[in-house]
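Thread: Newbie trying to understand structure tokens

Hi all, I'm a second-year student working on a class project, and my supervisor (Dr. K.) asked me to get a predicted structure for one chain before our next meeting. I've only ever worked with sequences, so writing a 3D structure as a token string is new to me. If someone could post the tokens and maybe explain what I'm looking at, I'd be very grateful. Here's the chain:
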Amino acid sequence: MVSYRILLVALLVGAAAAEEFGPFTKDFYKFLQTHRIRNEYALSSYDQYGSTGTFGGKAANEISLPITHHPVLFVHGNSDSALRFSDEAPGWDNTVRYFRARNYSLSELYGLTYGSRNLTHSLLKYSITCRNVVGIRRFIEAILSYTQTDKMDIIAHSMGVSLARKAVQGGVMHLTEEQCELGPSLSHKVDAFVAISGANYGMCLCLDPNTVNMPACSQEGFAPGTCGKAEATQASCAAAQNSCEKDDYASVLRQINQGPKEAQFVASLWSSSDIVLGIDNTAWGRQTSPVPASNYKFAYDHYDHAKELTLRKRRRTSTSTTSSLHTPVTEADRGEFIDYYSILNLLYPSNLQPKISNTLALYILNS
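---
Reply by user tm_fold:
Sure, no problem. This is what the structure looks like when written as tokens:
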């Protein structure tokens, strides 16, 4: 009897491991083609990056099935991929697999690829551009239209945090050589926004002499500025005791930080061992990863910049702020293992729980 059980488990694990998430399903691709010009960004991602470049949409056996969760958009960081392409571009596979195991269908999970999937190009060639922000904005609109849902959730990592924030905020984005009109804010359409390892106030790494002139460290990237100091170095930027006398970090980041809140509930997650964003996540005396007006903040330990995508070790600290809809997180939330309903009880009044997406709770519990 035991051997049969072992065989059954092995078969189930094998089937799960073999599941392919990309590319877009035929049904979603057909939908995008009905407005080919407007959806050019998503369609070009499908055409350019192959089976690991996109995911999402109803499979042939799901056409008539209803959407039961808020759809989730995953926005990767610089040089990464929607799905696993290489060790340097691991994509969202583990996270998608986690949601699939909790009864999310592929018609409720979406992602696409932008930029190069080559790590050496991440600082050398790429910054925040109108094409990427407008493209992600159009993709958000396409997901809402395709799924016919009132709200969705967004999980973004690294540069993807900045791109997704501005795509949702709307308005005008002013860059050195271009500007783009995005339209009105979509924040009322986003229930939960989970920001992982963003650099919302720049990153001190950009003051290194070898990186300071690279596009990713420009005013359209993650320049931390000098904060009015005559001699600004990576070390002085990262020193916790150094405060900022004058905000002159990247212009595009200042525009985003001055924009409207991105969602009903915003969570910021980062690691204090991230060498890309700096040990302790500091840029001129403040942490760079918390999104302004975040309702929920976590600092993890023992993660590098890429591994924060999976977040599979215990959290280091936990902080929160209150709002009219969310109660404070208490000491009970700082344990290593917490069940889903405990998280909901901490975050939301009981009368609101049926209306709230469980995306945030699911992701925080991915441990």
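A couple of things are worth pointing out once you decode it. The two ends are 32 Å apart (CA to CA). The chain is about 30% helix and 15% strand. Feel free to ask follow-ups in this thread.
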